[in-house]
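To close the section, here is one more complete example, presented without commentary so you can practise reading it yourself. The ligand is adenosine-5'-diphosphate.
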Amino acid sequence: MKIQTRIALIFTLLTAGIIVALSIFIYIFARESTEKSFFHRLEVRSDIVGHAGLQEDKTQTSLYYDIKEKHLGDLPFEQHHIIKSGEIQKANSLRAVLPMPPAFYDQIVRKEPARYFANDTSYVGLNINQAGKTVIIISSAVDLYGLEEMNNLKNLLILGFFIAMVFVFSFGRLFSRQIFEPIRRIIRNVKGINAHNLNQRLVVDGTKDEIDALSNTFNEMLDRLEITFEMQNNFVSNASHEFRTPLTVISGEAQLGLSQPEIPDIARHSFQTIFRESEKLEHLTNSMLSLAQTGFDGKKEQWEQLRIDELILFVKANVDQIIPANNVEINFDELPDDERKLVVNGNETLLKAAFTNIVLNSCKYSDNKPVSIKIGADSSQVFIEVTDHGIGIPDREIAQIFVPFFRASNTDRYKGYGIGLPLTNNIIKMHQGSIVVRSEVGVGTSFITSLPFRY
Ligand code: ADP
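Output:
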């Protein structure tokens, strides 16, 4: 789950807790005050009825009832039970029917007003004394209006809770989106930085907050990375340059030796070996130099519009020179009708080197079995598929073949340094292209390179 959503959820849960606690408090407070006021109203009526029950004179009794009728009126389901002194049986039978606990009766005995609430019914008990006579009156009624009010309040609080939750979650999400926007900006910026544009830096707003501190930390790390990259790159470039001159001298001297007409066979053989090996070393140092340059700052190179079919024809001619016994065939069957789909924007030398590497590998690792180069295009890219019937690449190792100096475990029989494909991959990436490798050990390998065409 994204931190952003997590924050919105925590925010919502916290607010939910606060709203629930507040709602419970409001509900309990409202219920208690409604109950209290209803108990009071019932007690007033109970008191009048109790006094009426104490009167011997009937006119006095009806006077009490008239006052109650005129000024107070009846409460819903209002009932009164009067127990005069000595009516122990009546008291016991009432006790059996009514739900009040013993504490209720104890309070009446102590002459304190007793109150009890059960099954939506309010009960009050009074001990009334007048002119030496005592009655106990137990009255009950149902606060229909109060119950309905409480029910309405409960529904209102529940509905209010859910509406508030929807609002809180929506605002929480908006709020956390807002908070995380600078982090998302940093992620976008950092994603855009790679070995080719290590000089780019994150924007620092100058707000001196945590986001600024994070951007600054990233920028400092990028500074260090850039310096390290540059040092490593300069080292490889300088070393390759330093190797080049003595190598040229060695192969030149070997050629000079070979051109002498009367040298013994053994010396000729040695000169040939020196020449061949120094050529290989020269190729290796050139590849290392290109790898260092393309891996770091390819933008130095010259770019132009190139036709892929012409480029591949050149590659084939180049391979013919290096391995005369090759069996490479170019397949034009899927060539697009629209020639504009064959034109890419790129660096000629680098693209030639990239495809030559792929085709040379196919010839080498298939011991010059037939290799086909197919050129085609889809709606946005031109693709070049090089297929051989060679040794293949073990499944687990395919992902590593673009790592510099990596060589698959089945290549003991073949000479190589593991530089060609990393270089090729860098070149294709520089051209916004991609390489897909399909391979099966003992069956063969296909390298499918896609490049965006210009049109
Ligand atoms: P190398 O000089 O070893 O050929 P590359 O960088 O050109 O170096 O290739 C890296 C590795 O990828 C090779 O060592 C080999 O294991 C594997 N590889 C490349 N092309 C092929 C192919 N056509 N068939 C089988 N294996 C291949």
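Once you have examined the tokens, check your reading against these statements. DSSP finds ten helices and eleven strands in the chain. The radius of gyration is 49 Å.
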